[in-house]
């Protein structure tokens, strides 16, 4: 007979040390957490709601104008998503469409605005559902903060607008909501919460793959079995239903496998710098719905980044095997570290990837035991620079001007630093022996 996971006592084994014992950074101290963020950031529910409303209205205003920088941020919903919606209505996933590179569960998000279309147009319905997912994330974080005097909800509410209106015109908020709610449920003690959290992570994996990483840090034993089994059953069931109801449900694999080096990735920045130095003759062109670099060594660099992604996966497996100390923050910290590692080794780092990272950082900040506070702070300027890269200065980025290069170098340097810090701090908090 199996028994539920229980926190280890001092007598039964080592426990995770308090964050202050892991670092001398002021960001880890109880003074920083309570005095700074509780008094400044953890206000009453009405204040949080007011800030959410004001910032989201501002994002809506920007999207209504949609003329910032190169403009056209909303075209993906207005044209591409709306076109895909029509195909789904005919019972098929986009056949041989190079811009469709998403798991079949993404079709559910694209089809969901149809529920509101008797009253709203497609674009308006999509934005309304995105705001609803945003509100669900805020509510979930606020409930987690309330009992722990933490500040995850304030981080999410104030950080997401750094990406301007982009989050409202992509479906990454919906995917992030699934991962965030899954992690919050996994913090609970009941088997039902663990299963529901696993189911949400499995659903998220079918929507955009990366939410599956929310389960990388679940405590060994019953919690892992419950969550991982629920995730697998949910993903397989959904895949089967979609395969029966729609044709071409796995067509995205062809498009995704052929992706090159997008200009906003770390590899793209390296090629841009080489081009500016006159040692690489390639140039960007639109492929698979985005600007990618073409020219010599691009394929080799793409394979190198795939190898780095595999290396990141192996490191995560090694971490899980070696980890000996678990706290309530470990699953949250592991999820953020994992997604950061997969982000920086990706051949594609679109600006909306920051939505995922901000959401996971916000979940980490719902625990006083998290070691990811400095990582969360690094992600704030990274998000702001992502908005400069797209849409504000996107023409400069594509052209490879000094301004565009500077923005991309700074943004990607921050992401690389955040990934390295997250991996290091996770390992030190859970694997490295604690000095007596």
Automatic annotation (TrEMBL):
Per the record, the major location class is membrane
Q: Does the keyword Transferase apply?
A: yes
Q: Where is this region: Disordered?
A: 1-26
Q: Do you know which InterPro entries this protein is assigned to?
A: GT87 (IPR018584)
Q: What is this protein called?
A: Glycosyltransferase 87 family protein
Q: Write down a Pfam family by its short name.
A: GT87
Q: Where in the cell is it found?
A: Cell membrane
Q: Which organism is it from?
A: Streptomyces omiyaensis
Give the way it sits in the membrane.
Multi-pass membrane protein
**TM ranges:** 32-53, 126-144, 198-216, 228-253, 265-283, 295-318, 375-393, 405-423
Family as reported in the entry's similarity comment = Belongs to the glycosyltransferase 87 family.
Q: Which UniProt keywords apply?
A: Cell membrane, Membrane, Transferase, Transmembrane, Transmembrane helix
